Amino acid sequence: MEAVRWLDRYARMTRRLADAVIQACERLPTLHMAQMFGLHWNTVRLLDRRALQAALSTLPTAQPHRLMMGIRLFKGHRYASVVLDADTQRILWIGEGRCRAAVRTFFEKLGSEGSARIEAVAMDMNTVFDLEIRQRCPKARLIYDLFHEVAKI
């Protein structure tokens, strides 16, 4: 067998075609890409997934110093607790529900060293988050959003 530089081993398409599909997937839905390139939608989806996994593997691991926490509401009174890195605006963690146990899972994964590194946390006036942050991050300053501060008056 001869190695061809523009074809990956065991590949059924050229790198150039795969790159074109991946770039187009950033802008258009999978089904449109499959029709446009004459590929099965599953093939397009697999290429897109591999590209996303490669991009995620190159991201630096989060060492946050400032956090933003909030609650996201879904239809039917379903909630999710969201934790973001305040400096990069990147979502670090999403937990199901709005209870203290949901937020506790994030801090357990962050570890005691990571929790000690937290300097400030911005959030709404939710006592669930407040209690957990005071317990896990002793040096962290709590910053409440203006809407909830004004509404409390």
Q: Beta-strand level of the residues, as a percent range? A: 15-25%
Largest sheet: 5 strands, mixed
CATH class of the largest domain: Alpha Beta
Helical fraction:
40-55%
Mean pLDDT: 83
* CATH level 4 superfamily of the largest domain: Ribonuclease H-like superfamily/Ribonuclease H
> What is the CA–CA distance across the termini?
77 Å
Please provide the ordered H/E string of secondary-structure elements: HHHEEEHEHEH
Count of the domains: 2
- For the largest beta sheet, what order do the strands appear in spatially? 3-2-1-4-5
Q: Tally the beta strands.
A: 5
| Broad shape | elongated
Uncertain residue segments: none
Radius of gyration: 22 Å
Number of helices: 6
The CATH architecture category of the largest domain equals: 2-Layer Sandwich
CATH topology title of the largest domain? Nucleotidyltransferase, domain 5
Structural class, please?
A: alpha/beta
Summarize the structure.
This protein is an alpha/beta fold. Helices cover 46% and strands 20% of the residues. A hairpin with a 3-residue loop joins strand 1 and strand 2.
